């Protein structure tokens, strides 16, 4: 597995909304082929940071570079090209309710490519299979699917353009424990099979302990810890202490914490 090249670089980002400063010099690097998590308490600016990576928001200062392209001052043409390189799974699936699952998956293929209807149908079928859904799901509407199926359908849509990067906003939230672990396994499988890089916002300790390669902790307008679980656990920042070193976590994940040999845990 190649986990060398930096595919996303965030450098000294400052983000303000009116008088509120959300980021005040946020920097991090995400490498090719890794599963990278953004952690932090509610309101820490995780979603805003992800939106800045996918050009839905612009920071007040600092630089974001994605796949070698600086987003500051990027031309319309380059921005459109870059948008094809990523897929995004928003927190609540965000499928179009008036379209079937197949039509939802087809949206970007229609918008960004000139491929024939027959080929689009083939691609849609292959994406539905890729995320582990049954072929007939393509003709159903979002309202006819369970929460877990909606997540998978939204993932199929995010993968429609065969992106290099996959952004996931709390992918396992709202899923039951079995569904959440199955979804984690799917993310790993897709990363391995497709060679993509995965960036996810998560609060899910099971995901963090089992599938995440590296992570960044956002707090106090900064990245207060970044790296592998082992690196992050060395931090004594109050968020890290509360999130990873509380009694419940220590008991439930004793093995993983022991493997990472953290002092005072
Ligand atoms: N478009 C916007 N306009 C004004 N304020 C915003 C906007 N987007 C986000 N904010 C503010 O920025 C802060 C960070 O929001 P963000 O959604 O990034 O938090 P988060 O870390 O993702 O939280 P959560 O875990 O609750 O989703 C919040 O105070 C939010 O109200």
TrEMBL record:
Domain of life: Bacteria
Chain ranges of the ABC transporter domain: 8-245
PROSITE patterns xrefs: ABC_TRANSPORTER_1, ABC_TRANSPORTER_2
Signal peptide: none
Keywords: ATP-binding, Nucleotide-binding, Transport
GO molecular function: ATP binding; ATP hydrolysis activity
Pfam families associated with the record: ABC_tran (PF00005)
PANTHER family named among the record's database cross-references: PROTEIN TRIGALACTOSYLDIACYLGLYCEROL 3, CHLOROPLASTIC
Official protein name in the record: Sulfate ABC transporter ATP-binding protein
